[in-house]
Design goal:
alpha/beta; 2-enoyl-CoA Hydratase, Chain A, domain 1; four-stranded mixed sheet; three-stranded parallel sheet; 14 helices; 11 strands; about 40% helix; globular
């Protein structure tokens, strides 16, 4: 292991010099010439050397001091010798940030999962991550939702195995929860929902609520819009601030799957700060039960409208609207700022975070919501969409059945 770090150190010292010399001489190099070919080869070698260092020598040494290995070291130990073929080594990341998921990170994962489904290869995930990257906001959440959708599509098509190699939080726990088998390393791996720092629209007001006295923090039931039966799901902020807990997740998942089984359109009203944190929920299995709701929405082919989990665009929601009061982000301003800035200039940084993330625009400019609408127009908009989507046809990948996280 020491020799590996030494080799990488040696390369990292040489690389900047090569790059500087190459850039200086670039203008005099003719495309297609021997000099041009040699220049490209040197650039490839220096880029590979930098990629193999990951977050850098200091971070590698810090990981080793914890008694843990880097991602590549773990892969090389697990796989047959020299059998690992890496994809997208040249794909650029802004920085490492404790293994938290960036959009670039998510694209690499989605690409390999797509390829695995095409050729029927099992997927193995090694997880040691802080979850969604707060600094990227909704883009990071979108990355996780894209991965979740592939987890669900791959279920029953190829085996999916997750290994938890260190503390995992937020979105990093739900992808493993959707896979077939999950293994954890004793004493060094942990799963958290949150890290330690961390409208009346129915016809004639007619609403038939299902299980009204159970898990009151989520409301599910049937109604009619323009005379058509629809299933409705909504977070209830008056109970537990609308947080999703074990019971709410199971209640919501069962209802969503019922509607999908009988092609009943789903209308979802999202007002949720996230999953309910705490050891009692985690010991009770919130990760596994929360994954049921995520799975139910992702697998549903019936049409209709916690950001990722509750019928987001990434989980194939047909139409997604935001009200002007919507906030779509990894977490609230206070929690995010305390983690990113460690309490420095709290008020000033909170105001900046609210301006940047705590509004519907970050999701709207990325196409994750179709429109920002006034609440009074909600019923009319949904009725129009239901009419358009009446002839919708969508199929899941062919398989006997998916392996839902029961």
């Amino acid at each position: 292991m020491t020799s590996l770090v030494s080799r990488l150190l040696k390369k990292s010292v040489i690389s900047p010099v090569i790059q500087w010399q190459n850039q200086r001489a670039w203008c005099s190099v003719v495309a297609g010439s021997t000099e041009h070919t040699m220049h490209v080869r040197r650039r490839i070698e220096s880029t590979k050397a930098a990629a193999l260092l990951g977050g850098g020598v200091k971070r590698i040494e810090k990981q080793h001091k914890k008694g843990k290995l880097t991602a590549r070291e773990r892969i090389n130990l697990m796989m047959d010798p020299e059998s690992f073929v890496e994809y997208d080594m040249y794909l650029e990341h802004d920085c490492i940030f404790g293994g938290s998921l960036s959009m670039a990170h998510a694209k690499k994962i989605c690409k390999i999962m797509d390829q695995a489904m095409l050729v029927g290869a099992p997927v193995i995930g090694l997880n040691d991550s802080g979850g969604a990257r707060i600094q990227e906001g909704v883009a990071s959440l979108a990355g996780y939702a894209d991965i979740f959708q592939r987890n669900v599509n791959a279920s029953g098509v190829v085996p999916q195995i997750s290994l938890i190699m260190g503390p995992c939080a937020g979105g990093a726990v739900y992808s493993p929860a959707l896979t077939d088998f999950t293994f954890m390393v004793k004493d060094t791996s942990y799963l958290f929902i949150t890290g330690p720092d961390v409208v009346k629209v129915a016809d004639d007001m007619e609403f038939f609520e299902i299980m009204p006295n159970y898990a009151k923090n989520i409301v599910v039931g049937f109604s009619r819009m323009n005379g058509k039966t629809v299933g409705m799901v909504g977070n209830q902020p008056k109970v537990a601030a609308g947080c999703l807990d074990i019971n709410a997740s199971v209640k919501g998942a069962r209802f969503v799957r019922f509607c999908d089984a009988f092609n009943i359109p789903l209308v979802t009203f999202v007002d949720v700060p996230g999953f309910l944190p705490g050891t009692s929920q985690e010991y009770g299995g919130i990760i596994r039960h929360g994954a049921k709701l995520l799975f139910a929405y992702a697998e549903a082919t019936a049409y209709g409208g916690a950001y990722d989990v509750m019928s987001s665009k990434h989980l194939r929601g047909d139409t997604n609207y935001a009200w002007p009061t919507a906030e779509v982000a990894v977490m609230g301003a206070k929690g995010a700022v305390s983690i990113i800035f460690r309490g420095k200039n709290q008020a000033e940084n909170e105001a900046e975070y609210v301006e940047k993330f705590a509004n519907p625009f970050p999701a709207a400019v990325r196409g994750f919501v179709d429109d920002i609408i006034e609440p009074r127009t909600t019923r009319r908009k949904i009725c129009q969409d239901l009419e358009v989507l009446d002839s919708k046809s969508l199929k899941n990948p062919k398989k006997k059945h998916a392996n839902m996280p029961l």
